[in-house]
Amino acid sequence: MDMSFALKQAVEAYLAKGSRLLMINGTIPEIAAQLEVRCPEPARCLATDMIALADLYRSISGHQNLRVRLEKITTDSCRKFHVDCVDLRLLRTYVGPGVQWTRDEGRTVREAPTGAVVFLKGKHFPGWSDAEKLLHRSSPLSDRPASERFRLLLTIDEANACANAPFDLVA
User: Average pLDDT for consecutive 10-residue bins of the chain (171 residues)?
Assistant: First the structure.
């Protein structure tokens, strides 16, 4: 999914003036109200995109209470391939490399393009099977040039997802 010029400008404005971590829990109207207050004015197009993606996630997952997290990442977070302890997760990397995934324990690694909207099934997805799992991780930043060592990542989950539960990790 290609990002519009207006969205790219809003992302740049958020990177310049927005907080390192923005986390909001609630229904779509509650999320929209909090984004109105917490997202800098020049970044409103980004807030609109986040609300639209939260609504898309809601319509696909059926969850009404969501957790929306927008994070500026500058380290090699989530380095190991894993499956999350959620039923469904939406990821969109607005800036920087997208999420990496593998089906074969890391022998073949693919990377989502910047701006792509990615849905990942977690261990709690109905009918999820270990045999069909798709492992993912954050793209490593430390081996990139210093000017490219950052990401702006949107994550949307169900509000009560077990975020602190252990992952299924693979080297």
Answer: 87 94 96 94 95 98 96 84 91 94 91 95 86 84 83 94 48 39
Q: CA–CA separation, 11 vs 84, rounded Å?
A: 26
Indicate the pTM of the whole model.
0.89
Sequential DSSP letters for 8-73: HHHHHHHHHHS-SEEEEEE-HHHHHHHHHHHS-GGGHHHHHHHHHHHHHHHHHH--SSEEEEEEEE
Spatial separation of the C-alpha atoms in residues 59 and 127, rounded to whole Å: 19
- The tokens of 155 are what? 């994550």
**Which is it for strands 135-137 and 100-102: parallel, antiparallel or unpaired?**
antiparallel
